Amino acid sequence: MKRVMAVGVFDLLHAGHLHYMEQAKSLGDHLTVVVAHDDTVRMRKHEPVTGQELRRRMVEGLKPVDEAIIGNPPNVPIFDILPHVKPNIIALGYDQEHAEDRIRTKLDQLGFGHIQVTRVEGLSDDLDGTRKIIARILQLSTQSDSEEDA
Predict the structure, then answer these.
(1) Which of 35, 61, 103, 128 could make an SS bond with 56 (beta carbons 3.0 to 4.6 A apart)?
(2) Secondary structure of 110-138 in HEC code, one letter for each residue
(3) In this structure, is the dihedral angle defined by the CA atoms of residues 43, 47, 53 and 55, taken in order, positive or negative?
(4) Cβ(90)–Cβ(103) under 8 Å?
């Protein structure tokens, strides 16, 4: 069985996330998704809109996902999750800032050289990311407010 691991925040689940999961699942037989720990999200991105357990449950409810787990807190090395997941492939989202070369080097250093690292294709939609969706909502809200004032 070929095991695939995908990682992400998955705050405000949207079509881009589903596409990422579909692409990741197509690479193997079993898809485990690692949902970022709330403290990691706070440290690297922003205050999460939804908590880690709700994000995990939402991701696990997606058809392509076989298992969703919460990732390590920021004080635990991210690669420590690999012995638990046992992936053959790590699928990266098209817009994730992870550098494949750095991941590959670290995997080799830690004795996980057998794990393949693959970047999946993005969704060709203008609302394929959480920040884009929030910006669009704010834009529509501003337009609506302007129309009401007129």
Answers:
(1) 35
(2) CCCCCCEEEECCCCCCCCCCHHHHHHHHH
(3) negative
(4) yes
Fill in the DSSP letter of residue 90. E
Structure tokens belonging to residue 15: 């079509």
Q: Distance (Å, rounded) from C-alpha 52 to C-alpha 69?
A: 9
pLDDT digits (tens, 9 = 90+) for 111-143: 999 999 999 987 666 655 666 777 777 887 777
pLDDT score, position 147? 66
Radius of gyration over alpha carbons of the chain, in Å? 17
Give the tokens for residue 61. Answer: 């409810």
Cβ atoms of residues 80 and 32 within 8 Å: no
Q: Give domain 3-124's CATH number out of 3.40.640.10, 3.80.10.10, 3.30.160.20, 3.40.50.620.
A: 3.40.50.620
How far is the C-alpha of 29 from the C-alpha of 111, rounded, in Å?
A: 23
